[in-house]
Amino acid sequence: MSKKVLMLCGDYCEDYETMVPFQTLLAVGYTVHAVCPDKSAGDFVMTAIHDFEGSQTYSEKPGHRFTLNANFADVNTANYDALLIPGGRGPEYLRLNARVLSITQEFAHAGKPIAAVCHGAQILTAVPGIIRGKRISAYPACRPEVELAGATWAKIAIDAAVTDGQFVTAPAWPAHPAWLAQFMALLGTKISH
Q1: Is residue 193 part of a domain?
Q2: How far, CA to CA in Å, does 106 sit from each of 36, 77, 148, 188?
């Protein structure tokens, strides 16, 4: 039976952090339901491309229209094996949605794998206590929030990832190979070379 992953999306989530994991997990046989508050299957979210071009922070360019394939209002966390939270600007306002926080808390309390890349950690930090005592990575600008939530900031390379218990986190999209492999390992997928 295929593992089922819930992906929490929002407008201006990072394009690569939305499209690449969605397509990768589908390619290896997972079922991935991409949802967004106040949107239904067939609706889309706009993505943004963040790039590292030598400035003090990333630049932002228009991304794609990413089509959702499930209804946010129908989410029952018991029907999923894992949670995926892309980064970008989406998490900063998604964390204001009470149902987004309760979904995240339900996955955490059930001990199911949760992956958050880049600013996705902002949702983890908004749920009291779930990352306390954990080693968590995120985009460096999120470090104060990670530490205020009681986690240890994982200062790792931009193409690295860290797993601590059920949490797989990474600083940005260059870490896709690392965090996707760690996330799939938590889900019991063995990739042989």
Answers
A1: no
A2: 17, 7, 21, 20
Instruction: Assess contact for 76 and 40: CB atoms under 8 A.
Output: no
**Cα–Cα distances in Å, from 37 out to 57, 119, 133?**
28, 18, 29
Range of the domain at 175: 4-186
Which among 128, 123, 117 is positioned nearest to 154, based on CA atoms?
Answer: 117
d(CA 180, CA 72): 24
Query: What CATH number does residue 176 fall under?
Result: 3.40.50.880
Per residue in 156-165, pLDDT (tens digit) is 999 999 999 9
In angstroms and rounded to an integer, the radius of gyration of the C-alpha atoms of the chain is 15
- Total number of domains constituting the chain: 1
In b/e form, how buried is each residue of 8-37, taking b as 16+ CB within 10 angstroms? bbbbbbbbbbbbbbbebbeeeebbbbbbbb
Place of tokens 């999923």: 80
The strand pairing partners of 5, in sequence order, are: 32, 82
What is the model's pTM?
0.96
**Strand, helix or coil for residue 52:** coil
- Per residue in 83-125, pLDDT (tens digit) is 999 999 999 999 999 999 999 999 999 999 999 999 999 999 9
Q: Do 49 and 17 contact (CB within 8 A), yes or no?
A: no
Question: What's the mean per-residue pLDDT of the chain?
Answer: 96
Confidence check: pLDDT of 68 > 70: yes
